[in-house]
Each structure stands twice: as C-alpha cells, then as structure tokens.
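Sample pair:
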Amino acid sequence: MSSLLNPKENMSKETSIRLIQLLRFIPRYPAKRSLSNFRDYLNSLGFEVTDRTIQRDLIKLEKFFPLICDDRNFPYGWSWQKDSKEIDLAAMDKVEALSLSLAEKFLEPLLPIENYDRISNLFNRANNILESSEQSQLRRWRDRVRVVPQSQRLEPPSVNQEVQTNIYDALLYGDQLDVLYLKTNSKVTERRIVNPLGIVLMGIVHRLICTMDPDFKIIRHLPLHRFKKANSNSEPCAEPENFNIDNYLKKESLSFLRTEKKLKIELLFDAHTGFHLSETPVSKNQKYKEEKNGSIRITGTVADTEQLRWWILGFGENVEVIKPQSLRDEFVKRSNLLNRIYKS
C-alpha cells in the first residue's frame, strides 16, 4: 500500500490501515459517499479523524487510484470511476470464487439492476480466479453442476428494461408507481396507481407483488412484462398493515388459489407414473398405497389451486381423480371437452 503512495512520506501503520479502509468503503459510481459517511465509518472502526483529515486522505488517494469527487450537489460525494479496474484489496480464495460463480445466474434477476451492475466486477473476478486454475477441482465442479427447470422449457417474456429499472427502484426506495398495465387478453393498456410490495421470480416470469387501484386492499401478483410504463409519482408506497411476503407466499397465492379451503384429494395413478410420489409426497400427510392390480392410490390434503389442476392434467390418462367429487366432476367435464376436440 505504501509503495502506491508518496514514497517520501513516512506513514505510520495506522495511517496505512486507515487509507485501506477508506478505499474499501468507497462505492462504485453512480453511488457516492460523503465526508460524514466516511467519518462515521472510520469512527466505527476506532479511527478518530476529522472531515479535514479525511478530505486530505481522499485527495491523496485520488492521485494513485481512479477516484472521482462529485461536487455538483451538496453534500459532495466520492466514488470509484464507473469503468475503473477492480482493485484487489482482499484476496478471494477459490471456494469464495466458486460460490460467487455459481450464485451469479441466480442473483442477476433478483438484484436491483443498478446494484447488480456494481457487483458484476466481483463475479468477473471470481470467474477469472477459477479460469486461471486449470487443474482446480473447484473449476471442474462449476463446469459440471447445473440447475434445470422441471416443466416445459419456455423462452422468457420480453421486459422493457427502463420499466423494470423503475419498478425495482420504486420497490427499493419505497415509492408508489404510476403505471400503464396491459391486462390478459387486452389490447389496450390501463393507467393505474400501484404500491410495489415485492418481486418473485416464478420460473422465467418476474411477478410484482403489489396493490393497485381501485381496490388497494387486494394484494395481487402481476407479470412484469405486462407493465408498459412505470414511473414513481413521488408518493410513498402504502403497504397493507402487517404485510409479509413469506406469509403471502405460504398461502399458495402464486399458485392461483381458488379458495382458502383445503382439498382432501384421492388420486389413482398407474404404477409407473405414481411411483415418484413415494419419494416426493404431494403433502406432509400423504398416504401412499399400492393396490393389487399395481396401481397406486394417493391421499392427502392440499391447497385448492389452479396449479394443482395443471399438475394433474399433466399426467393425462395415467391418473384418475377419485375425490373430492367436485374435483372429479371438473375432470369429467374437461375430459368430455377434450374428447370433443380430438373427435373433430
């Protein structure tokens, strides 16, 4: 560190450590930190310094590192330059590099866009470490481990980048949104006021958990690609009392819940199709029974959702709905409709 600074200056060990901590605390542009931010941070680490000392330190560091001071608006703020080369202030071992490399694909769609851009250099650094270790077993692990979707592969919908950025920012800062939204099977957008409450990645579709006028009491989950415009209206987000995204998801809301009432189902599978349920039960209270003819009878309590119906339909003629009678009647009707379609 001292070799990067003025060699004629006799710095103490404490000064060197303070300068290193300053460099670590400087964010990448467009984020910035003021002198008071640096002072509070250094004080929390046990360095008692004045704003004047910090200012001198930053000016000194600016001579040797790609730093910028934004003095357009008060309070002034310091940043690393947008395209500056990553400075390795702390070594990253290969296990840390593997963790970041594997996490990259999953974090990208979940982080605020601006924040992801700022940490993408960490992912690049992690990948570079693994690439430079040709004999590393960890690199082999990264190249041999994948996550694949269980359902039919679909191409992701097209999402307007500006709209997504504005929605993510509104969620991040707690702002209300003025949007243009295109409902299912509609060709005309509608202007709505939206309170963003959360983002959920469901397969390849991002869904905004929110409330929307005219009824702010109803919590909805709306596909991000159907938002055609979205801008903060400078009003604070109005959240429902005691809203918790985990509690919302536990209610099977994203599975298109029909009713709050649970269903006690009884399904009859052929032997080959139903075997997987002996390993992955449909519910915690599932009962699995092999019949004399080889078929498998499954009973259990599940949520009354559209997703349940899609799941059963996916097995086609290899499953029969026995109970409840109301669900069996639904499938009788669906079967008759299918029969008509394929007869013609």
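The radius of gyration is 28 Å.
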